[in-house]
Design a protein that fits this description.
The protein has no helices and 16 strands. The protein is mostly beta strands. It folds into three domains: 2-62, Roll (SH3 type barrels); 65-125, Beta Barrel (OB fold (Dihydrolipoamide Acetyltransferase, E2P)), CATH 2.40.50; 129-186, Nucleic acid-binding proteins (OB fold (Dihydrolipoamide Acetyltransferase, E2P)), CATH 2.40.50.140. The strands form three sheets. Strands 1-6-2-3-4-5 form a six-stranded antiparallel sheet, with no helix packed on it. A five-stranded antiparallel sheet has the order 9-8-7-10-11, with no helix packed on it. The termini are far apart. The model has no long low-confidence stretch (mean pLDDT 88).
Length: 188
């Protein structure tokens, strides 16, 4: 058990039969009334973000979590298969636990967050950026550079990404895994 004075960013708490990570918090002392802590919580099971006011001094159930490095192996009808880099144990996770599974390439290093007491996986954190090869892209029109024009492209994992006109099939591109957006072309 922890109190509101122990709250910090990244801390995990249990509320309403769900596990939440604290995204941001702020201690508030209004001119009139009791002090409280405003927290923005992200559910580790379904990804929803909620906002909550917790009275100052209130006790919260903190959850001990472990972050382990895993390597993505493959996916099939059973789910997405990952291997622990230290023990070589494998775990199969469902697609709803992943933010952008269409950006996962075999061999990608990810971080799996486990509930330390129950030993169940809660969520998968992908790396901030992935580098993927463009397998198909429409040719860009010559001279059409007056605006920041984007065209559709398909990458080696099967994901569709909007890229600038100069990107062609065979190019390596850097993609932000949080938004799924093109960042830059990578030199080979």
């Amino acid at each position: 058990m922890a109190t509101t004075s122990d709250i910090r960013r990244g801390m995990c708490i249990e509320m309403n039969n769900d596990t939440y990570a604290i995204v941001e918090f702020q201690h508030v002392k209004p001119g009139k009334g009791a002090a409280f802590v405003y927290v923005k919580l992200k559910s580790l099971t379904n990804g929803r973000v909620i906002e909550q006011n917790i009275p100052a001094g209130h006790k919260v159930d903190d959850v001990r979590i472990e972050r382990r490095n895993y390597q993505y192996l493959y996916n099939d009808e059973a789910g997405y298969h990952f291997m622990d880099n230290d023990t070589y144990d494998q775990v199969t996770l469902q697609e709803d636990m992943l933010e952008r599974p269409n950006l996962l390439k075999e061999g990608t290093q990810v971080e799996v967050v486990f509930h330390a007491v129950k030993e169940i996986p809660l969520t998968v954190n992908m790396p901030q950026y992935v580098i993927l090869e463009v397998t198909y892209s429409e040719p860009g029109l010559r001279g059409d550079t007056a605006t920041n024009t984007l065209k559709p492209a398909k990458v080696e994992t099967g994901a569709d990404v909007r890229v600038p006109l100069f990107v062609e099939a065979g190019d390596l591109i850097k993609i932000d895994t949080e938004t799924g957006a093109y960042m830059e072309r990578v030199k080979q």
